[in-house]
Every structure is written in structure tokens, then in C-alpha cells.
Structure to design on (202 residues):
DNA sequence: TAGGTATATAGTGATATATCTATGTGGTGA
DNA sequence: TCACCACATAGATATATCACTATATACCTA
């Protein structure tokens, strides 16, 4: 076996994204958005994650900056959705891992 | 669809582990150990990751503390191996993701 | 345009991480 | 036991992150 290692450039690009997502609240938000299957408002997300408005907004912004989420305004509400489906692999890993132990 | 969300307790337990692993050097080390398929010495790991001795030792310790790696001494050398195979799912995710774009 | 609702951002202090240098420790062989 | 090799840890500094409060902004309705 002499497979090539994943190159450092890739690791340096991917690591901070994973790192940012690997936060209890942010994982919860992603899990919620994944389950709902459609963009949800900040208020809904606050309820699902049991956090205050500022925190929710900050976490959402962080993930939006990373390209993990996208947002669109609809009247008074701003709806957030998953922009990069590949982060859901992480959730799959967690679910899979939890199921087998 | 009304699947349950992953509970916060699980997320809080798993997040710091993922977070710690989601570091370019540490991912590289895991990728290397995965590819080699057997425990390797700190010196080998230094070469594979292109880092100095102290840094390598520190990263290894961090992952060992988290239970991701294990170590055993063999003469002058200390060999590190992967203790928790489930972190390899992360590498699979990265490889898979990189392959499809 | 005034007032309300929903969301975003600024500012802050506490805590954690990254990285580097220097030094300590454990094992081996002369 | 001394010197050496492989590795571990301490200490210091810079930087990033967290969680919170207060305040600002955007949009709607009347």
C-alpha cells in the first residue's frame, strides 16, 4: 500500500472549516437544518438550539462566512440554509459512530 | 420526516475531539499513520509531517490525551498508532470530498 | 414616518490554541 | 557511569474563540 497522502494545501483549506463546524451549537444547527430540509429563520434556529438571539446570529454568521450556510431575506425574516452539503458528511459520521457502540 | 436531532450531550462530547483533529498537521499525522497501517516513531512522523521535534511531540500528545492515538515504547523509540479508528471517517470525508470536485 | 419585530454587529473579558525556544527525561551502548 | 539518541515538557508570547451585554440596522405595518 503506497497511497499518496492528502496534500497539505488541501488539509490547510479544509481543516478550519471542519474546525468551525465542530462546535456543539453549530453541529446542532446543521443537524436541525438538515432534518428540516429547507431554510429556516433565525428565530426557529434559536428555538431548536436553545440559545439567545445574539449567539444564534453569531454562529450563523461564522458558518455563512465559511460558505457552509447561505441566507436569504424574506420580509422580516432571514432564512438560513445549508450551502455546502459536504459538511453533512460530518453529521453522518457522528450518527454512524454513535449508532455502533 | 421527523427524525430526532442528535442530542446535545453527544455533540458536546464529540465536538472537541473533531475539533482537535481538524488541524492540518494532525490530519496529516493521522493520514500518515492510516496509510502506514502500523505504529510509527516520532521521528518518522516528524519526517512525514515536515515539522520539528517539539511540535510533533506536542501534537501527538494532544491526540493521545483525546484517546485518538496510543503509544508504546520500543527501545529508544516511541511508536504511535491510531487508537480510535472512527476518526478515520473524517479522512474519508475529506478524500471523498476532494475526489468529487 | 413612527413603532414594532427580526436580525446583525460592536465591544469586552475570560479562556483556549498555536508556535517557538530551552530544558528535562528515559533508554542504550561504550 | 558517561555520553548520546529519541522523545517529552516547561515557559513565553501571540492570536483566536466563547459567551455575554448593549446597541444598531432592516423591514413591515399602520
Amino acid at each position: 500500500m503506497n497511497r499518496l497522502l492528502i496534500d497539505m494545501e488541501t488539509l490547510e483549506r479544509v481543516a478550519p472549516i471542519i474546525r468551525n463546524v465542530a462546535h456543539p451549537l453549530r453541529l446542532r444547527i446543521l443537524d436541525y437544518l438538515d432534518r428540516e430540509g429547507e431554510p429556516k429563520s433565525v428565530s426557529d434556529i434559536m428555538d431548536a438550539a436553545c440559545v439567545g438571539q445574539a449567539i444564534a446570529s453569531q454562529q450563523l454568521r461564522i458558518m455563512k462566512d465559511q460558505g457552509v450556510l447561505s441566507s436569504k431575506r424574506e420580509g422580516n425574516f432571514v432564512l438560513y440554509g445549508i450551502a455546502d452539503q459536504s459538511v453533512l458528511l460530518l453529521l453522518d459520521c457522528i450518527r454512524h459512530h454513535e449508532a455502533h457502540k
Observations:
- The longest helix of chain B spans residues 8-21.
